[in-house]
Amino acid sequence: MDPTPIPSSTQPPAKDSSTTHEPSKVIFVRNVPIDCSETELSSAFEVFGPTETVMTMNAKSHAFVQFVNLIDAQTCLMQVQSGKAKVMLQDRELLIS
Q1: Which of 22, 18, 24, 21 shows the shortest CA–CA distance to 77?
Q2: Measured in whole angstroms, how far is the alpha carbon of residue 52 from the centre of its chain?
Q3: What are the φ/ψ torsions at residue 9 (nearest 5 degrees)?
Q4: pTM over 0.90
Q5: From CA 54, how far away is CA 24, in angstroms rounded?
Q6: Is pLDDT above 80 for 10?
Q7: CA distances from 25 to 28, 31, 48, 53, 70 (A)
């Protein structure tokens, strides 16, 4: 007896949310000096465009920076991650993602 073929699904495969990212105006910053103020951090990133919100997590040397415009956040990420630009604060290079 031959097995009956199983019909293929007509639905597209589900998207894997771990591999797709929506563009965001928020960047994650590491290596932030513990005594850094949110104003100092905002000023360090305003070379890429105006920032809207800065939230520091000083105990972990991390922060989130939200730009007003999506294109400014994308430009910051592309330039820093490609090595074309560095963001320095209190003699530290800030790491972003």
Answers
A1: 24
A2: 15
A3: -70, 140
A4: no
A5: 14
A6: no
A7: 10, 20, 12, 10, 5
